Structures are given as C-alpha cells and as structure tokens.
Amino acid sequence: MSELATPPSAKQPARRISARHVTELEGLIDQYAGSIEPVHAFVLPRGTPAGAGLHVARTVSRRAERELWNLHEEAPQREELLQWANRLSDLLFAVALVVNRTAGFAEISPDYSV
After folding, report:
1. Domains of the chain: which residue ranges?
2. pLDDT tens digit sequence for 72-102
3. Where does 2-113 sit in CATH, by number?
C-alpha cells in the first residue's frame, strides 16, 4: 500500500503493483479454484478456524477495494492497482474454500442454490 501512502508529488515507491502481480494472483486463483469442484450455490462464510479466518480476510479485502474505488473517484489510481485489489479477495475466497473442503467442511448451503 506504499503507492497509496505516497503523495503524487513525491518520488514514486520502488515497489509498485504491476500487471505481473495481477497475473500472478490470477494464476493462484486458477490453481486453487481448479483443485475443487465449482461452486453452484450460495457459500456461507464459515468453516474451520483457518477457513473462517480467510473469509474474514476476504471481507476486509473487499472493504479495502471499495475504499480504493472511492479514492479512485477523487484521485485516479492505476488500473493495475484496482485489478490487484479485486483479485486479492478472489484469491482469499478460493483458498478459504480449499482449506475448508480439505478439512471435510462444506460451506455451501443446500437451501441457497443459484
């Protein structure tokens, strides 16, 4: 988040989110999501302690993404940063599913099919 903490007039931080970082997150999402059955129902954010913690991290990540978009309306942000923030929450979701399913816990509610 050094990009957000650095004023536009200052020297840009050495570590910036790039398209490569977005691609790496997408690769990890594909890897994790590909190791489990596709989701066709409403997922209840619960599970093992690790899985539930990942779901909490995902909601925090989504909140940060929404705030980043609010900032973007006032002070435009780079596209790669916006994409990375979106993919991060997707990755946390996929990892949460894998962690819970590996432990034998199904988060999907049979009452909420989509």
Report:
1. 2-113
2. 999 888 899 999 999 999 999 999 999 999 9
3. 1.20.1200.10
